[in-house]
Amino acid sequence: MNKNIRWKLITSLAVFVIFFAVGVYPILAQRYHMPLPSWLAAKQLKLGLDLKGGVHLVLRVQTDEALKIHTTTTSEQLREALRTAGIPVTTISVPTPTTFHVEGVPADKDAQFTRLADDQTATEYDRNSGAGGTYDFTMKPNVAVTMREQVVTQARETIDRRVNELGVAEPTISLYGQSNDEILVQLPGVTDVARAKEIIRNTAILELKIVEAGPAGTQEALLQTYGGKVPDDMEIIQGSAVSGDTSFYLVRKAAAVTGTDLRNARPTIDENNRPAVGFSLTNEGARKFGKATGENIVDPRLDVFRDFVNSLDVDAEGEGRSS
Fold this sequence. Notes:
42% helix; 323 residues; alpha+beta; four-stranded antiparallel sheet
């Protein structure tokens, strides 16, 4: 009996020593600046929100907004292609996140329109014709599902990168609920809640658009050659206030490349040892990039470069760098 009691006491003492060493001492050491070996710090118990406090957020990804941006971009790309081909239409509108509507296709241009529309949209949208030269384009269900999943995945990855800026140990970033568009974010130990929310919830959209005119000091000066009116297929944007550029630019609404066309982006250095952004494109993104750059080279001395960018159409993956 005495032997059993002795072993129980020894076991209890050993458990207490291990718990104190791993769970209590590292906390006291950090608070009171006591010696703390690195191997012991690595074994420290991580305190969750219930013990340590912090930030608990449930974020909903606006997948409808992402689909609407994609549909709008597609409709504007079709508008640009129609303009280039000399096919006039009355209006192109986006009534829902997954549909866009075309009106006023001339009867004598109908066959040319359908061929061009299929080249631009057939992989992602179903086309239905109506009376009077009207057409409705609806995103295919499987494309919509895949795109929503990609948007949520990108949101999780973006949040994960931004959480790294906060230096949070043991954060929780996971899908939440049954709708598959909510993300749970738990940041133990974070006390600046406002800054955490600002970093995590800030929206960023990447679009590469062709500049038609600018820079100009005012919008009026920018539109002098356009009769003072913004063309239907263009829009005005202002330079970044962060960089000190307050000029105005006239750009095409149709984005040549968007964030969905990127595989990844990374900081790098250009040939002049200046900071630059390196990126790789998806197959479709490489095709779009090659087409847009190839069609917008006006200097005849750059024919060699034109051939290079056009070759991106057949590359498996496009690589690029922007300084």
